[in-house]
Amino acid sequence: MVNTSQPSLLQQRWPLGSRQTELSNSKFVKNDNESYFRFHQLLDEQNDLALYYHFPFCQNFCSFCALNIAVTHDKGIQLEYVNALIAETKKTYPIKGKKISALYLGGGTPSSLHHLYLEQFLTFLFDHFDIKKEHFSFIIECHPNDLTPENLKIFKKFYATELRLGIQDLDPVILKNVNRFNKIENIEVMREKTQDLNLRLGADFIVGLPLQTTTSIEKMLFQSQFYSFDFIQLYPLKQNSQTQQNLALFGNSSLPLHNNEFQENSRRENKTVRTTRDPFA
After folding, report:
1. What is the sign, positive or negative, of the torsion defined by CA atoms of 240, 166, 265, 173?
2. Which of the listed residues 23, 132, 176, 182 has the most CB atoms within 10 Å of its CB?
3. Residue that wins the pLDDT comparison between 77 and 31
4. d(CA 144, CA 187)
């Protein structure tokens, strides 16, 4: 049973604030004891666990992003955060051996975590929980520029089953306008290497970014099939007043009018468009 009068270890160190990009003000965790207590109740009721861990670290700030992130290259705060996650997990599950059937690392950019800290965290999870390779789904969100030999070795060692690339768009002009820089050649290399490791590779794209047009979106989807992704996911741009301000800081912030209907329909249906390998199948 969780004592809701006492904040968690993560809450003590990083109480929730607005998204931060300054190291000294990094704030990651929701400070809401009622929600926190209910979350633990739900976990206690589960036999096989499916766990999500949030890694807020990013190499740079993408102006369309509305998530809780911390832009920092300081490895010290990454290690501090990983240690806090480990301590929090031990507090939540003091008895070792609970079964995990699914693990999802999201962010932020989990793949931007220093590979030694990523390995430290996964080593702890595999020691603390009961994880069987044949009954385990392990998904990691990745930036196209983060496919290092060290990361690939870790993905293989800990039975990763799927990588989800945050590509957002294939047009470098559209990406630069929102302060995002993907190396297209890295996507091609990643496809080859993940096939060697028997990893599913998915791609996330955003519809509704400034400078996008109906024609550019169709071109993006057409081009995506040549990378042989196992699946692609389309997300409508989430808009709020902060998004507009952030977009204006880095480039053209005018949102394409002809995408408004698509975005509105997506919000009403509350769905993510998920396609097969062939986007036109």
Report:
1. positive
2. 182
3. 77
4. 6
Note whether 251 and 179 are within 8 A (CB).
Answer: yes
Q: Is the pLDDT of residue 236 over 50?
A: yes
Q: Identify the band that residue 213 occupies on the pLDDT scale cut at 50, 70 and 90.
A: very high
Half-sphere exposure of 261 (CA within 13 A, CB side): 3
Residues pairing with 235 in the sheet: 206
Q: Report helix angle 75-92 to 115-128, nearest 10.
A: 10
Task: Break the chain down into helix, strand, coil percent, rounded to 5.
Answer: 45, 20, 35
Phi-psi region of 75 (alpha: psi -120 to 50; beta: other; left: phi over 0): alpha
Smallest CA-to-CA distance from 231 within 155, 154, 139, 149 is with 139
Token pair for 272: 């993510």
Helix runs in the chain, H state only = 9-13, 33-45, 75-92, 115-128, 149-157, 172-177, 184-196, 214-224, 241-250, 260-269
Q: What is the DSSP letter of 179?
A: T
Q: Tokens 């809401």 correspond to what residue?
A: 32
